[in-house]
Design goal:
By secondary structure, the protein is of the alpha+beta class. The protein has a single domain, classed as Catalase HpII,  Chain A, domain 1 (Beta Barrel), CATH 2.40.180.10. The chain is built from twelve helices and ten strands. Strands 1, 2, 3, 4, 5, 6, 7, 8, 9 and 10 form a ten-stranded antiparallel beta sheet that branches. About 35% of the residues are buried. The model is unreliable at about 1-25 (pLDDT under 50). Bound molecules: protoporphyrin IX containing FE. Protoporphyrin IX containing FE (HEM) binds next to strand 2, strand 3, strand 4 and helix 10. Protoporphyrin IX containing FE binds next to strand 2, strand 3, strand 4 and helix 10.
């Protein structure tokens, strides 16, 4: 990352739309294209005469001992020794690409967020698709939920929708996330199975845990083996809120609907592909973009006014329930296109870090009991995966300036000039912004109640929507869902 002077950052800030905007997301990195004119150097920039021989003491054409003095050789081995970072604790296997988000209808009746109201804008995005259960090297076509995570580099800061291809989730309360993930991951004694989300511990957990019923119906259906990342829906899953200029709140669910339609593999196809071409989805996305067949998704919102929060027979904050579209239609207001592959997998797809707490003014949390825990967890997990300065990594940097007094820590890149690093200060440097200046707005919300480890009674109903889902399947889809079991793996 370049320690760009403020004037350059200001220039970048004003260039965030369209083609230019997309370039900016990568412009901050120290980008080096390998060329024939290059000569090998050490990390400190000194050219080297050989990359093949360790310095040693030879005599009479006999090979002698190697010298520790060869700091170039030691540096080469040492850098290799430390190439790996921890893989993601979930969603380790993934593929990413750059693109644009274009709004074609303003949602100003429900939000003042420019990314959802300014139809003249194009917002650069980075999207990462993933499986949940398997390790970084696992196969693509396994039976599993797929991640659909979108980072919008908006002029007001980064906004992340960290979604899945299935609209509901296994659990209602984030405190259970370690349990469902331990149960679905390879079993602890022998680390089997890899990449598969149906095995003894998984069934043990969901059998004991009725709220998982709806989601595992989806996970056992054809939905859990997409034909392509380009043919998958994306759902924000959690309930968020939008705030408009009048200060009115609406609950919202986010949707991405693929323009190629939703398609799946059947189990036999998935098995063959997992053996023959474990990179099937990754390559499909890469090749489509290289060939100019840019994948596109319509972006939609379902909204419910705050006053109607309790008008439904399910709790609209419950992530194990979807909002039926015949009750709350999806309003399509934008389009997401992916049109550029990454330049390097590690620095972009591996180092990208999403977080549900990344929201911009006009978009906010709700009391969804899964969401609050997520917003803690994503932030927290990056510390062990990427380190404290993870938001400074080029792929994670916003396109607008970052101005605060957070400082230091391992791997700090930004050089901030000046004599004060605290607020308030006698120079009135970097004061908090006003609402008119674009400050994030925490919508006022009245809160009262009894502190207790419970949720509302509607959270205790677990079967209506599971049944609705099963009944919505065609006969072959029902058959696939019913007959799938571990013996067929
Ligand atoms: C609505 C339910 C959820 C959805 C849709 C979801 C989706 C995702 C996605 C798409 C990723 C991969 C992000 C990437 O591509 O880098 C991810 C990673 C992760 N999720 Fe979730 N998740 C959900 C629930 C949770 C909960 C409840 C927690 C914890 C309380 C959690 C913790 C994590 C962690 C720690 C990672 C790894 C992040 C990283 O290392 O970058 N998730 N999730």
């Amino acid at each position: 990352m370049l320690g760009l002077p403020m004037s350059a950052v200001d220039k970048l800030k004003n260039m965030v739309s369209g083609e230019k905007g997309r370039k900016i997301a990568q412009l901050d990195s120290v980008s080096r294209t390998v060329s024939k004119d290059d000569r090998i150097t050490t990390d400190s920039g000194v050219k080297q005469s050989t990359a093949d021989e360790w310095l040693r003491v030879n005599r009479d054409d006999k090979t002698g001992p190697m010298l520790l003095e060869d700091s170039y050789a030691r540096e080469k081995i040492h850098r290799f020794d430390h190439e790996r970072i921890p893989e993601r604790v979930v969603h380790a296997r993934g593929a990413g690409a750059f693109g644009n988000f274009k709004l074609f209808e303003s949602a100003e009746d429900v939000t003042f967020a420019p990314v959802l109201t300014d139809t003249s804008r194009e917002t650069p995005v980075f999207v990462r698709f993933s499986t949940v259960q398997g390790s970084r090297g696992s196969a693509d076509t396994v039976r599993d939920v797929r991640g659909f995570a979108v980072k919008f580099y908006t002029q007001e800061g980064n906004w992340d929708i960290v979604g899945n291809n299935i609209p509901v989730f296994f659990i209602q309360d984030s405190i259970k996330f370690p349990d469902i993930i331990h149960a679905v991951k390879p079993e602890p004694h022998n680390e089997v199975p890899q990449g598969q989300s149906a095995h003894n511990n998984f069934w043990d957990f969901v059998y004991m845990h009725e709220e998982a019923t709806h989601m595992y119906m989806w996970a056992m259906s054809d939905r859990a083996i997409p034909r392509s990342y380009r043919m998958m829906q994306g759902f924000g899953v959690n309930t968020f809120t939008l705030i408009n200029q009048k200060g009115e709140r609406h609950f919202v669910k986010f949707h991405f609907t693929p323009e190629l339609g939703v398609h799946s593999l059947v189990w036999d196809e998935a098995l063959k592909l997992a053996g023959q071409d474990p990179d099937f989805h990754r390559k499909d996305l890469w090749e489509a973009i290289e060939n100019g067949a840019y994948p596109k998704w319509k972006f939609g919102i379902q909204t419910i006014p705050e006053s109607q929060e309790h008008d439904f027979d399910f709790d609209i904050l419950d992530a194990t329930k979807l909002w039926p579209e015949d009750l709350i239609p999806v309003r399509y207001i934008g389009e997401l296109e992916l049109n550029k592959n990454v330049d390097e997998y590690f620095t972009q797809t591996e180092q990208v870090a999403f977080c549900t707490a990344h929201m911009v003014p006009g978009i906010a949390h709700s009391d969804d009991p899964l969401l609050q825990g997520r917003s803690f967890s994503y932030f927290d997990t990056q510390l062990s995966r990427l380190g404290v300065n993870w938001q400074e990594l080029p792929i994670n940097r916003p396109v607008c300036p970052v101005m605060n007094f957070n400082r230091d820590g391992q791997g700090r890149h930004t050089i901030t000039k000046g004599t004060v690093n605290y607020w308030p200060n006698r120079f009135e440097v970097r004061p908090p912004a006003t609402f008119q200046e674009g400050a994030y707005h925490d919508p006022p919300q009245s809160v009262e109640g009894i502190k207790a480890r419970t949720k509302s009674a509607k959270f205790r109903e677990h079967y209506n929507q599971a049944q609705l889902f099963y009944n919505s399947l065609s006969p072959p889809e029902k058959q696939h869902t019913l007959t799938w079991d571990l013996r067929k793996q």
